[in-house]
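## tool: complex_structure
## caller: assistant
## args:
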Amino acid sequence: KAGVTQTPRYLIKTRGQQVTLSCSPISGHRSVSWYQQTPGQGLQFLFEYFSETQRNKGNFPGRFSGRQFSNSRSEMNVSTLELGDSALYLCASSAIGAGDTQYFGPGTRLTVL
Amino acid sequence: AQSVAQPEDQVNVAEGNPLTVKCTYSVSGNPYLFWYVQYPNRGLQFLLKYITGDNLVKGSYGFEAEFNKSQTSFHLKKPSALVSDSALYFCAVRASLANSGYALNFGKGTSLLVTP
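## result:
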């Protein structure tokens, strides 16, 4: 099976702009989670979607949002970008059980100037 | 609340020697525990997990981990380290309770350096 794919891999934006990141899960996986990775804060959970519904949300401001489509593909959006939003954004997919493994994509490196 | 502690920022080991990367956790109820590895400019790669059953879990690339409930630990081990094992290692936990959500809580990561 193909792995989790994320597009684009690299992105440069300026403060105040908005950005949309895309994630395609492993075929058959219905859960998609998003994480932010920064040197200072490490890996932090953003949100998780299952069957087009947000099932969990991390402690991030409302500028961070996401959605999932009927084919399980997911997008996350960050509006009014800040310098601190520069990070590696990782998407992970899993099957439906809590014990199921999350498989990660290569990430999108976002740089905010 | 769930949390993971990886007490060592960096572990150095000579090639051929055994390695241990430490992880302790805190969770309500029974834990689901995971180890991931990250190479530079890459995503996280799954190594192994503990859900239930045998406390010794074997995973990819010769890695194994031992679940110790009394010490709330899940240390990653490998009998003989390779230079190619040099990477960033993350321990993660998720509670098994139905209402605990599916988010993984990660430790800060441990950088493993294996020298020839």
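## assistant note: Chain B touches chain A at residues 32, 34, 36, 41-46, 49, 51-52, 90, 94, 96, 98, 100-109 (CB under 8 Å). The first strand of chain B starts at residue 3 and ends at 5. Handing back to user.
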